[in-house]
Amino acid sequence: MKKNKNFHASWSSRWTFILAAAGSAVGLGNIWKFPYIAGENGGGAFVIVYIFCIVIVALPIMVAEVTLGRMGKKSPVNTIRDLIQSSDAQKSFNIIGWMGVSAGLLILSYYAVIAGWALSYIEHMISGNFHNINAENAGLVFDNLLKDKNELIFWQSLFMLMTVIVVIFGINKGLGLAAQILMPLLFILLIGLLIFGYQQGDLAKAFSFLFGFNFESLSWKAVLVALGHAFFTLSIGMGAMMTYGVYMPEDSRVFSNVLMVGILDTLVALIAGLVIFSIVFVNPGIESSAGPGLMFVSLPVAFGNMLGGLIFGTIFFVLVTLAAWSSSISLIEPAIAYLIESRKCTRLVASLALGFIAWIFGLGSVFSFNIWAEEKIAGFNFFELIDFITANIMLPLSGLLVAILIGWKIKSKMVEDQLLADSPKLFSTWKWAIKFISPIAVIVVLVMGIYPRLA
Ligand code: TRP
Q1: How far, in Å, is the centroid of ligand 1 from the Cα of 374?
Q2: Among 219, 368, 216, 218, which residue's Cα sits nearest to residue 292?
Q3: Which atom of ligand 1 is nearest to the CA of 328?
Q4: Dihedrals φ, ψ of 377, to 5°?
Q5: In sequence order, which residues have a C-beta less than 8 Å from that of residue 246 and are 6 or more positions away?
Q6: Which domains, from first to last, does the chain contain?
Q7: Residues 74, 75, 81, 83: is their CA dihedral positive or negative?
Q8: Does 24 sit in the ligand 1 pocket, CB within 6 Å?
Q9: Which run of H or of E encompasses 368?
């Protein structure tokens, strides 16, 4: 607000918004999480449901979030509060802002742990540990990392520090710029890996695994995971995109920008999936359902056995770290913006305090891979529980409320002013999706996905 000029500055151009939003969207979700949950949920049908969720549920909600940010021009908590006041919406919609802030910090808590794995893999790559490695030994390297809680805490802390430092300095220069350089580079490297997968792996099998229609293996739980991941990967359901919408230049077009981000994000996920599974299928030591370690076991095998692999491998894990970095910032920024606006906190204090809270929670995820590995609640260890509650419940729930708020509660005139000029056709399709399709889909999936766990 007044005190904080940065918060109201806008991106220097349309492309900076796209790249920054893509920087938030493209992260561990695409390269690490998508392939492993696709593997755990049987591939093909899961991927199709996921793409469906992106197109008919998540993209309309992303448009809604960005638009809310453009209307409210404040941090999510205050944007929502102002919009509730200027329409006849119930006060209970305020929960969107609060749920967003807590989901962001909880996700960040384990995000830093996984990003820490990527950091430690940069070290492994540089020191040549993966030279000519086979799947079995790659698995051992990974298992040893997980067992060593001090090592995990070291890398987790380093990543959290990196995140906090960028947000302390304000998000304009650092992030916009980093995203501009980073995204194209990451894309090129993934294409390079895809060529490796084609030459040395089983790309055809990876393709039919990811795009085959094996609907028998699809459960409601898998549909819920697919829906949750659609929210997670596009960074929606917690106000990150709302915050980035605030920074969007007045005259830019929401629909085409959002679509662009959606396409980029999906492409990165699908290519990462193809790369990883083409390697998995020629290495009997790696299971497609290997879980969170999937990329950390399969990719070293690829890099360790290709020409110049250790150099490419180093660059790859640097890029994964950077992709995670440009995402982690958007997980903490809405909470910081709120503390600055409403609690008269300086950016420095807000960043340090929130980073510390997320770090503490992250220790629970660190321990889930060693000393707490056997401690389960409802079948989940701590890391899995936080992941399940945030990605599969909080994000869709808050997306649902966003859809209801913008579709039914806020004055249509206000929404039209923001979006109609973009394209009247797209607007009426979107309006229909946000009023009916997205909310109904979320409700059905939430109920069917959660009910059996409770019953
Ligand atoms: N989208 C990021 C990824 O795929 C993670 C992320 C960043 C996120 N900001 C978010 C997830 C906000 C949910 C909400 O890695």
Answers
A1: 28
A2: 368
A3: 7
A4: -120, 120
A5: 7, 8, 69, 70, 72, 73, 74, 79
A6: 14-454 (1.20.1740.10)
A7: positive
A8: yes
A9: helix 347-368
Residue 326 C-alpha to ligand 1 middle, in angstroms?
A: 9
42, burial (CB in 10 Å: exposed 0-12, middle 13-18, buried 19+): buried
**Mean pLDDT, each 10-residue run in order, the chain (455 residues):** 40 69 92 94 92 95 93 86 86 89 96 97 93 91 96 98 88 62 80 88 93 82 93 93 83 87 94 93 85 91 82 87 90 89 87 97 96 90 95 93 92 83 87 94 88 66
The residue type of 151 is E
- In 281-346, alpha helices (H): 294-304, 309-342
Two structure tokens written together for 179: 């995203």
Closest CA to 323 of 107, 26, 125: 26
Distance CA 172, CA 4 (A): 12
- Residue identified by tokens 């404040």 is 74
Closest CA to 305 of 322, 287, 282: 282
**DSSP annotation of 380:** B
What's the half-sphere exposure (Cβ side, CA atoms, 13 Å) at 85? 8
Is any atom of ligand 1 closer than 6 Å to the C-beta of 120? Answer: no
Residue positions counted in the chain: 455
- Give me the half-sphere count of Cα atoms (radius 13 Å) on the Cβ side of residue 80: 30
The string of pLDDT tens digits covering residues 161-201 is 999 998 888 756 665 666 667 778 888 888 988 998 898 88
Q: Output the CA 271–ligand 1 centroid distance in Å.
A: 18
